[in-house]
Structure formats: C-alpha cells, structure tokens
Amino acid sequence: MDRKHEWRNTMFSPEMKMSDLVNLDYRLLTVISRMGIKVGFGERSVAEVCSMNGVDTATFILVCTMYSLPEFVPDKNSIAAIRPGIIVDYLHNSHSSYIKYGFMEIEKAMKELVEPCDTKQKKIILSFLAGYRKEVENHFDYEEQTLFPYVRAMLDGTADGSYTIAEFREQHSNIEEKLEDLKNIVLKYLPENCDSELAGRVLMQLFSLAEDLDIHTAIENNILVPVMNMIENNGAAV
Amino acid sequence: MKVFLVIPSKIMAEGLVSVFNDSGEFHVEGCMSELSHPGELMFRNIGADVIIVDPILFGHPSRGDVRQYFSRFSDAAIVALPSYSLEEEAKEQYDAVISIYDSPAAIIKKLRKAVKSSSSSTQQDVKDLTSREKEILVCVAKGMLNKEIADKFCISIHTVITHRKNISAKTGIKSIAGLTVYALLNNLLDPESVE
C-alpha cells in the first residue's frame, strides 16, 4: 500500500504530535477516549501513542478525519487500509458512551428544565424523550447482537455466510429523526415558564449528540459497510 | 439514500454503480436507458432521493422542462450526468451537475449537497399551521391512518399526505410521537384522548 496516498486528503498525519492533533480539534478527545487511548501524551507522535495503546494508526486517523471534516468521503485505498476490528471496538464504545453519559446527562437536564411545567406537559415531554431513548437502545442492540458478531466472525474466518453487510445496509434505520424533532420541540415550542439558560444548555447537548450520532452513522455507512463489502468479495480478511 | 439512474450509456451507468458500491451511502435502486411510462411509475413507487439523468434524453428543452417532467411523479433531487458538454443555461435546471471526470469523492459530495438543497427548497417557510392542517395534525396525533383521515374529511389520501408534509415542514417535526407532543403542548389535543 502506498502510505503517502493514505494521508493525502487528511489534515492529520502519523508523524504529528498527538497533542497537536487535539489542539487542532478538541472534539477528537471523544475519539481518543473511545479508542481506549489515555491522555498524557508528552511529545509523542500520533503513531507512537497509537502503537503504545494497541490502536492501528491508519484507522485512528481515518476516524479522526471523519470527525473533523464532515464533508470528507474516504476513498477506496484508505478504506482498504483500516482494521475493521478497531472500528467495531470504537462503535461499541461509542454506544456505551451514548447510553452511559450522553443520554443520562440529557435526561437529567431535561427533567430539571421541564420542572416548572404543569404535570401534563412534563409527562408528555419526558415520555417522548424516554421513547426516543428506547428506540436508540433497540438500534444499538441490533448492531451489538448482529452486526458486530458478524464482523468479528468474518475477521476470524468463522462466519457461516448467513448474514451479509448488504442486509445491514438494507435495514439500517434512521435514529436521527426523533432527535431532530426533540431539538425543534425545545427550540420552538417549549412552555414559556422554563428557564432559558437551562434550555440553552439542553439544546447544546442535543445539537452535540445529533452531530456525534451523524458521524457515528457516517462511520458505519462510509467505512464499515464498504470495508466489509471488500472482505466479502475477496473472500479473505484484510 | 436511494438513487435512480436514467442513463442511456451502459459505461456511464456501470461506472456510477461502482462509485456508489464503494461508498455505501448511496444505493442504486434502478436503472433505465430511456424515459418511459413504466419508468415513471417506478420512480413513484421507489421514492428515490436522487435521480441521475443524462440530459441528452431531453434533447434541447426549454428552461424548466426537466424539472417539470420529474416533479409530476417525484420530489427527488435531479442531478445531470451529461454525456456531452452542457450549456450553462441548461445546467440551471438541475440540482447538481456531475462530470464523468469527477472523482468518486467529488460525486458523493455533490449528491449530498443536491439532496440537501432540494429538500430545503420544497420546505415552505410559513408561520402557523392552517386550521385544516391543525385538524389533520390532531388526527395524526391520535394515531389515525391516512386512509381514515381522508375518509373523515372527504379528501384524497394524496391530499392528506401533502398536508402532512406541510405540517412537518412548518414545525420541523416528523415523527408521530413528536407531532403528538406538539399537539399537546399547543393545546390542540386533550391529553385524555391519547394513550
């Protein structure tokens, strides 16, 4: 593989300092923690820190690029160079972080926000949020129980061929719709007696969750799906 | 996203299919080499997000023809992939123009942009819901089906769908659960009548 080609379209390189990468885009701290990489980088390069933490550098840089450049579409060569196993671990850790932190914080802030509303309104808004959470959990459960085991089995060579990536692409549902609805409900139709500073904070959390989920979906559709297509067609693990 | 091709050149059509196969984001649902009536029905059923067409099929139409033709049965973004050099004026009829020399990444970028701009241009930027829209919203929130709503108001299902599209465009809320929240917060609905 022509290494130079891989980094051509990206703003990050294996040789740059890991601390510089974070200074370029601090949101990449999310990627770093989900990849299981510890902070306290010293002067070490991206490649050094990745190898110390057992993370493939090309895969790490590709995910960072997807995060920082929303318009970025990875080409065939950079997709062929990644390790699907790392992507699956990353997606799995993202799922737990959405459930453990993202939703918990939003639910807590939301409860506080609608506290002054009357019981009826409170109930409606909170049950909408709970319904959305359930939908997202179901979406994640499918990937945890069906997609990820399939990818791991393909990589081990133990897949029985009963499931293909085309099936995933077919059923991959949209979990952004209700979040978009929730943003609009808070932004446009929140009862007047709610605290506006709190509302602002909740909105920031909703926007940032939406952005994060967008990238999450893009990583599934634009990295995982094509790389598994390649593996299925070549009949061997990359 | 669903893509439909109307491209007479096999080479160009196959090339596009391979670009989309590599990306996973867009999926070619069907391909025709010319415009035909059965094809129109297919667009309608498939609900394509993007239609990619070689403008050569339209000859040299007067402005607006291409858009008018497709708007009869689809609200997809219309993208041109010309097999010849297209005049500047003709380009304006499309949401995007891709070239056979574009890189796959550039093609995907253009399509994404086209889908975005075509969906925002159909969004009506009007303030409040009309009283008919409010009535329909209440029915949707109660969980009624389009057919039931159509029967209740003696209108066609098609009209119900148009109303629902406008409601979502105005409120920014698409899911039934979200519309129910809207209806309740705006006192259009008695909370006892749901659940």
Describe this structure in words.
- The complex is a heterodimer of chains A (about 240) and B (about 200).
- Chain A has 2 domains: about 5-80; about 85-235.
- Helices cover about 70% and strands about 0% of the residues of chain A.
- Chain A has helices at about 5, 20-25, 30-35, 45-50, 55-70, 75-80, 85-115, 120-155, 165-170, 175-190, 195-235.
- Chain A is globular and about 60 Å long.
- Chain B has 2 domains: about 1-120, Rossmann fold (3-Layer(aba) Sandwich); about 130-195, Winged helix-like DNA-binding domain superfamily/Winged helix DNA-binding domain (Arc Repressor Mutant, subunit A, Orthogonal Bundle), CATH 1.10.10.10.
- Chain B has helices spanning about 10-25, 35-45, 65-70, 90, 105-120, 130-140, 145-155, 155-170, 175-185, and strands spanning about 1-5, 25-30, 50-55, 75-80, 95.
- Chain B has about 200 residues and is α/β, with parallel strands linked by helices.
Sum up the structure in keywords.
heterodimer; A: 238 residues; mainly alpha; 2 domains; 71% helix; globular; disordered N terminus; B: 195 residues; alpha/beta; Rossmann fold; Arc Repressor Mutant, subunit A; five-stranded parallel β-sheet; 5 strands; elongated
- Counting helices, strands and paired strands, the structural category of chain B is alpha/beta
**Main interface: chain pair and counts:** A-B, 32 and 26 residues
Q: End-to-end span of chain B in angstroms?
A: 34 Å
Overall structural domain count of chain A: 2
Report the uncertain regions of chain A: 1-9
- Give the SSE string of chain A: HHHHHHHHHHH
In whole angstroms, the N-to-C terminal distance of chain A is 12 Å
User: What is the global morphology of chain B?
Assistant: elongated
CATH superfamily of the largest domain in chain B: Response regulator
Assign a percent range to the helix content of chain A. over 70%
CATH topological fold name of the largest domain in chain B: Rossmann fold
Largest sheet of chain B: 5 strands, parallel
Q: What's the rounded overall pLDDT mean of chain B?
A: 84
The major sheet of chain A is characterized as: none
